[in-house]
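Tokens help. Consider this.
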Amino acid sequence: MQNCKRPLFLLFMLACLVLSLQAHAYDGLDLYDCVISDQDRFNSKGVRLTTVRAILAQDRANYHRFKRRDALDSADQTFVSASQRQLWQSARVDVDPALEEKILRGDAVAISVFVFTPEWIQVREGLIPPNVS
């Protein structure tokens, strides 16, 4: 009886491995990577920004309008125009308090931004895993 279970267990483990390697689907509106650096912490007039929302909006202005991009910044379709970047001021933005502290403190931080809906944005530390699309 023990010998019969072993091949089934190995088959089950193989199936789990194959399934875990498949791409994870993201059903939101948009997602992108970026690095929050010193250039994102000042607006176009040189005034220091003091909120995460303003810093994230400036990162996208730097990307789209001013073409000042950090090496790991990637494109998005949500924050292309100045009016679209106003979404940062009205949406619910979920950011872990420790990550928020790093951004406000001035650390260079790589983040992933998930735009689930126009009303809900989630910011996570680290880059988007390559198998998420």
